[in-house]
Amino acid sequence: MLFNSIEFLIFFPLVCLTYYVIPYKARTVFLLICSYFFYMCWNPKYALLMLTSTAITYLSGILISGCDRIADEKQRTARKKQYVALSFISNLLILFFFKYYNLFSGTVNTILELLDIRYTIPRFDVLLPVGISFYTFQALSYTADVYRNDIYAEKNFLKYALFVSFFPQLVAGPIERSKNLLVQISQKHPFDFENVRHGFLLMLYGYFQKIVLSSYLAMVVDAVYDGWTECSGLQLTIATACFAFQIYCDFGGYSNIAIGAAEIMGFRIMDNFNAPYLSRSVSEFWRRWHISLSTWFRDYLYIPLGGNRLGRWRKYLNLMIVFLVSGLWHGAEYHFVVCGGINGLFQVIGDLMKPVKKKVNELLHIGTDSALHRILQTAITFYLLMITWIFFRADSLSSAFGILSRMLYITPAWFAHEGGLSSIGLERSDAGILAFSMIVLFISDIFRYRNIQVRDFIIAQKPAVRLAICYAAVMFLLIFGVYGPEYDSAAFIYFQF
To answer: How many Cα atoms occupy the beta-carbon half-sphere of 44 within 13 Å?
Structure first.
């Protein structure tokens, strides 16, 4: 069930209405049933996988907590580590089989062929369960939190199962922490009109990002990338820039809908994006992009590897490991791994170049806080990120390198000789809508960058003004989002991960 489907627009209000009418004691069971129904709308069989992951991590939490009764400290620590290892290994093996087995078998078969060894590892044609990477990481973070004594093991299986399967953020995050969401599941959430109002406005903005901006940007991206061998360097550059914003609006839109939906029911889940394309460095970008995943890798991989505590070069090695794993998390193809590796490499180079940049700024008397300097840094950062997005969007590693090489050859007279807007999948009217929507996105991100909530600004207006803004927004979505009988509710990009 997609957020941008008629089914969800019926499902969610019914869930909210029932949720606030039934007694508090019945709400956990009710939301758990709704969450599994929501997930089973894709493939009922794969709900068993989520239940298996839930049961394994639930039992591991109980067993780890039970180790506190062991008097001997060494034995207690060793036993805890065994249970943590069993939890991680079993869950990651499930993830490996469904997501990475074919990549592994294909790689081994290629190596065997090069060595002239006549043996072939079989491949399996299995459907990737929706959201498996997200709920697996969320469940594993609970195991780690119990091991670290950051949270007590949850004794109530139903509450823990709801933590893993909570439907607003189940299939594409944000990847929640037990210290936040699991605690809230045990709390009472009375009806609060302010929560409903704030959540509705955030959902509205999320729908704008998805069904308007992401959809119009996809026209350009798909038209160019699907036939990239026939496209010019400038066309590919424009399409890549559009993809950078498409994936932002697609995933950011999902996250905003998820956060808003949870807020309507009284739950506060973590922000996932914070004006990422206003970042002045690649490292800052990753503090603002997919925050729940970035912080997950920081807390459960980077810091356990040693973080920056073991010297500069070990820090760089840890960074590269994290970003290579992050790339692999996004997809079982080598172009995703390369994408992650380039992001890590950019951060290592950026850190190494800090003393050089400082000396250059001092010699040239460049004010690092000047508007021009900030704009230049932001533009350079965006260009570097565009390079990484090529490897993310391309169908293969060879296609990515081919696109990158073509982007080096830009024809200045492209608009005059190569068909103009229509050659990149846009008509003039579509381009106008896209330009207006991009301005709205840019203004919203500037407010966000400065820690100003647009929702609060709207709510502070007079009732008539608020109503007019909401009405105009809904009508804009209906008209330009083409939300009707002919609307094609394409899946969110991050569902494939």
So the answer is: 2
Token duo for residue 281:
């460095």
d(Cα 460, Cα 454) in Å, to the nearest integer? 10
DSSP code string of 434-466: HHHHHHHHHHHHHHHHTT--HHHHHHTS-HHHH
Write down the pLDDT at residue 11. Answer: 94
In angstroms, the Cα distances linking 426 to 44, 357, 362, 431 are 39, 41, 46, 6
* Other Cβ atoms within 10 Å of 262 Cβ, number: 23
Farthest CA pair distance, the chain: 80
292: Cα separation from own chain's centroid? 8
Q: What is the pLDDT of residue 484?
A: 40
Which regions in the chain score pLDDT beneath 70? 410-425, 482-497
Distance CA 304, CA 422 (A): 51
SS3 288: helix
Exposure b/e, 372-394, CB count within 10 A at least 16 = b? eeeeebbeebbebbbbbbbbbbb
Please give the pLDDT value at position 275.
93
CA distance 5 to 2: 5
Query: Is 127 in contact with 45 (CB distance < 8 Å)?
Result: no
Contact 88, 96 (CB under 8 A): no
Contact 259, 174 (CB under 8 A): yes
Task: Give the helix/strand (H/E) hosting 251.
Answer: helix 233-264
**Per-residue pLDDT, 466:** 84
Of 330, 335, 365, 417, which residue is the catalytic one? 330
Q: At what angle do helices 397-406 and 371-393 cross, to 10 degrees?
A: 140
Give which of 489, 496, 497, 495 is closest to 218, Cα–Cα: 489
Q: Report the pLDDT value the prediction gives residue 160, as an integer from 0 to 100.
A: 96
Q: State the pTM of this model.
A: 0.90
Nearest to 254 by CA among 385, 134, 383: 134
Q: Give the contacts of 435 (CB within 8 A, at least 6 positions apart).
A: none
Q: Can you give the pLDDT at residue 423?
A: 61
**Sign of torsion over alpha carbons 247, 249, 250, 251:** positive
CA distance 333 to 106: 11
Annotation marks residue 330 as catalytic: yes
Task: Supply the pLDDT for residue 490.
Answer: 58
